[in-house]
Please model this.
Amino acid sequence: MISEEQVDFIAEEIRKAHVKSVELRDDLIDHMCCLVEIEMGRGVSFEEAYGRAFNQTSPNGYGEIQRETVFLLNYNKIMNMKRFTYISGFVFALSLTAGTFFKLLHLSGASGLLSVGMCGMLFVFLPMLIVIRYKQLAVQVLSERLKWIFGVLSLVLFMVALWMKLTHLMGAGVILGLSFFVFGFGFLPFLFFRMYKASTDQP
Model:
């Protein structure tokens, strides 16, 4: 039979994992206590029983259960947001491509297409992409987060420089050089570091 102290230990471990939903936290405590009690009934110690129950329920931590629960409860909203994000990205990229093509051929409407494509990519697509990726990045290591931060920053600077260059605005060269600097000395080092770490983690 599991003791009150052991129940308190399990509850404290779940609370330390920052499970925000009270209902989910209570369900987790009940579930873990039942699993631990079953394992202890087989003659193992509380510590070993808790370890087995933890690995069976949430090997990546209790926070993973909360993230999965939130995802399932908000599945339709999340999927609609993803669809809108990638469809808008395609539309704005197409507008940017068409604007560049019109500009090179000196056709009318180039400036409008470039402006719509650039503003849409900078103020609609990229912010929504960052929001979608934020929760995934929050649980990843610092080098992975920095890789994404520098990558997005260099892309934003490059797109601004391209728009300024095509519309003949002053300072385009400086912004373009800054984008290459951030890409070369910010994004690439973390990209290859993560590739190296991934290769060393494999046998």
Helices lie at 4-16, 22-40, 46-57, 62-73, 75-104, 110-138, 142-166, 172-201. The chain has a mean pLDDT of 80.
